[in-house]
Sequence to fold (170 residues):
Amino acid sequence: MKNLFMIIGLLGFSAMFAQQSEIDITPDNSWLKAGLTAGIPVGDASDVSSFNLGLDVRGQYLFNPNFAIGVASGYSHFFAKDNLEDFGIVPVAGYLRYYFTPSGIFIGSDLGYGFLTNVENNEGGLYVNPQLGYHNRDWNIYAFYQNTFAENDVDLQTVGLGVTYNIRFK
Fold:
């Protein structure tokens, strides 16, 4: 079932790309986003980890002043409790964002696959990361809920805050 959702999501992203025959990349509609995240594990992840820090890297294309699509990756490091070992998630995802105004509130979500690092017998699974935040021309500050539906019925969830800086193409 999880794989079905991932396939449907990927097909939706490819359909959106196919609808526009020519993409004109400019500093006003396309940029990289790079930043940091910090979160508190919840659910299964809270049993083995007390805190996580991450790097967030994104490439974004703005279709119009309100709607953007892109690709997202990075790394979330989970600091282990007790005598357990730290582990991490490397997401590979597409994302959608809706900007209500040129500066102000936005909503969005990532959908893809989260690869687990330093975890035995579990490579990862469906990755979902909805966000609500504030943006201006240079910065994005957002709250997120990240969930990786990993193999063997393990859900790695975290809630937190992130900040990214927009690096414009020239």
